[in-house]
Amino acid sequence: MAGRLYTKSHEWLTVDGKSVTVGITDFAQSQLGDVVFLELPKPGRKLDAGESFGVVESVKAASDLYSPVSGRVAAVNEQLAAKPELINSDPYGDGWILKLELAGDLPTDLMDEAAYKKSTESQT
Amino acid sequence: MVDFGGWELPQQYTSIRDEHIAVRKAAGLFDISHMGRFKVIGEAGLAFLQSLLTNDLSRIGRGRAQYNLMCNDQGGILDDLVVYWGDDGFTVVVNAANRERDLEWMRSHAPSSVEIEDRTFELALIAFQGPRAQELLPAKGLDDLPYFGFRPGQVAGVSALVSRTGYTGEDGFEIFVSADLVGEVWDAILKNGAGQGVLPAGLGARDATRLEAALRLYGNDMDDSVNPYEAGLGWTVRLDKGEFIGRDSLGRIKRDGPARTMVGLTTAPGDIARHGATVRSQDRAVGSVTSGTHSFFLGHPIALALVEVASLRVGETAGVDVRGRQASAEVVQLPFYRGSARSAAAPAKS
Questions:
Q1: Each residue of B310-339: pLDDT tens digit?
Q2: Which domains does chain B have, with CATH numbers?
Q3: Which of B97, B102, B101, B104 is nearest to B83 (CA)?
Q4: d(CA B74, CA B8)
Q5: Where are chain A's structural domains?
Q6: Which 8-state DSSP code applies to residue B145?
Q7: What's residue A2's pLDDT?
Q8: Binning pLDDT at 50, 70 and 90, where does residue A98 land?
Q9: How much is the pLDDT for B348?
Q10: What is the CATH code for A5-103?
Q11: In chain B, N or C terminus with fewer CB closer than 10 Å?
C-alpha cells in the first residue's frame, strides 16, 4: 500500500490495489470542530472524481465531501452514524468515511503529505 | 481562534462537546472579557439610565444587577445589557460588537453631569457557570449571594466584584477582576476544579448553553429591526416607570400586539437549522431561524426562530430549510433546558 494522498478539498485517501479508503484530514476536522452528523451515500453508488458525495455537519457549519477518485462505493463506515466524533478523534483511523472501488486511474492532482502540509500552512 | 467583535476568542479549548457537558454537569470557566464594560459616573446616573433603558432600576437597589434593553425611538433593540448597581455607582456590561455604538449612543443622550467611562480594557471579566459552581469556586463569603446579587469579594485570594449572574441557564458567578490579576484567578479556579469535571469553556459551549436556555443573542436573535415584544423580552419593558427612549412606540406595539414572535424548534439529529433558514407552516414561509446549533446535552439540534404571530404553536410541526431541502421541525416550549439558575426572574424567562 502506498502512503496517504490528499486533495485540495481536504480529503485523504489510501490506495490498496483497486480499493481506495477515503476520509477527511486532521486539518479539516480541526477547522470544522466537533462533528455531529454525516450524510453519506449508499454502497453501489458510482462517483466521479471531484463529485460531492455527502455532507459533514459540525457544530459550526455544514461542509460538502468530494470524492477524490472515480469509482463505485464499496462500503461506508457504519460506525459514524452513532459515533460521528470518530472524525475528530481518529480522522486517519476509525474515522474513515468510505471505501471505493477505483475505476480508471488516480487523478494527477492528488498531493503527497509534504505538498498537502505546505498547502494548509498558507490557510492557517 | 475566531474573531468576535474584534477579540480573538477560542471556539473551544479542547472540545465543544466536553466543555458543554462540563457546564451542565459540574462547571465551566468562560473568559468573557470581550464584553464591553462602562462605568456611569455622576449623581444623575440613576435618572439617566432610567431614561435610557426599558427595565425599571427602582425595582432593584444597591448590590443587585438587572437585565435590561436599550431601544431606539421606534422601539427597536439597540442592545441587551446588564446593569450592576454597586457601592460606587453603576456598571453596564454590553455586547462586544456593539461597544462603540453603545458608547456613542449613551454619551449623546447623557446630561452634562453624567460621564460614561469605558473600562473594558482595565477590568477582566470571567464567568464560572454550572450546577456545582458555588461548591467549586475557590472563594469565601459568596454562598449567600442571591441570584442577580452583586458585591465585592475575594476569589482565590484576589479582590474582585462578583455577581451571581450568567448566560448559560446554570447557577454561577461572573467575576470582575483587574486585568493584570485575572490569569492568577483563572488558573486557581481551574486548579481547584481539577478532577471535579471543571473545564475552561469556549464560545461554542457558550453559544450552545445559552441557546438551550433560550437566552437571546444580539446580532443573531435580535437587532434594531426587532422589538422586545417580538423577541419575547416584553418582561424587561416597564412602560409605567416614566419616560424613556422608545416608550411611546413600545406602548403602541404592546397595545396592538407584535407582528412576530420567537418560537423554539427541535429537529432530528443531523438536521441543524442555521441562522437565516426559512421556516414554514404548511408550505407557507412564516419566518426564519435566528439561532441554531446541535445540542450535545439534549442529543438533537435546537433552534430559535422569529415567525409571524400565531403561525406556529407548541406541539405543531413546522418545516425548516436544512442544506437546501425541507426538514421537519417540532415547535416546542422555551427554554429547551432549564438549568440550575435560581430565579424565574432571570433572562431565561421568555
A1: 999 999 999 999 988 999 999 999 999 999
A2: 2-211 (3.30.1360.120), 259-340 (2.40.30.110)
A3: B102
A4: 34
A5: 5-103
A6: P
A7: 62
A8: very high
A9: 38
A10: 2.40.50.100
A11: N
Residues of B (261-300) whose Cβ lies below 8 Å from A: 269-270, 272, 274, 293-294, 296
Instruction: Among B294, B296, B298, B325, pick the best mutation site for testing chain A contact (most A Cβ within 10 A).
Output: B294
- Mean pLDDT, rounded, for A24-38: 92
For residue A89, give the H/E element and its range. Answer: helix A86-89
Q: Which of residues 58-77 of B touch A (CB under 8 A)?
A: none
Q: What are the cell numbers at B283?
A: 408550505
Tell whether A85 is within 8 A of chain B (Cβ): yes
For residue A36, the chain B residues in CB contact (below 8 A) are 269-270, 272, 294, 296, 301
Rounded Cα–Cα distance for residues B318 and B13 (Å)? 35
- Going by C-alpha positions, the residue among B256, B250, B306 that lies closest to residue B276 is B306
Distances (CA, A) of B328 to A58, B83, B308, B319: 19, 40, 18, 5
- pTM of the full structure: 0.89
* B74 has pLDDT over 60: yes
CA distance B196 to B192: 8
